[in-house]
Design goal:
With 122 residues, this protein is mainly alpha-helical. The chain contains 5 helices and 4 strands, in the order ββαααβαβα. It has helices at residues 18-31, 47-57, 62-87, 94-102, 115-121, and strands spanning 3-6, 13-14, 89-90, 106-109. The strands form 2 sheets. A two-stranded parallel ribbon has the order 1-4. Strands 2-3 form a two-stranded antiparallel ribbon.
Amino acid sequence: MKLVLFDIDGTLITDGGASRDAFATAMLDVFEYNGVLRRYDFSGRTDPQIAHMVLQDAGWSEHDIDARMPRLWERYIAELEQHERSRVRELPGVRALLDALRDEVTLGLLTGNIERGARLKL
């Protein structure tokens, strides 16, 4: 049996920046972080890793970050629910590729998105 794994962002879909915008709003609301997220490379990192990287860089302790993390993800999902559906676009050729592979291999996802965020995007 062959297994083919796909990332979501930039591989299957584009969201027109909705995820980053939702993350920025959640960071501001929960951590009062108003820094420039564009200076960080999110690729190859999980959502929790990104939050830790940005907030530790801003001087937050790991303990304080972890204490507020559930609120961060709730706020992030609330923002994503408002904007994601209108901004998500399937990338060209994705559906045809998945259809062609479906009967030949097992398909799966390998993503850094938190589960609720991944489900919203798909």
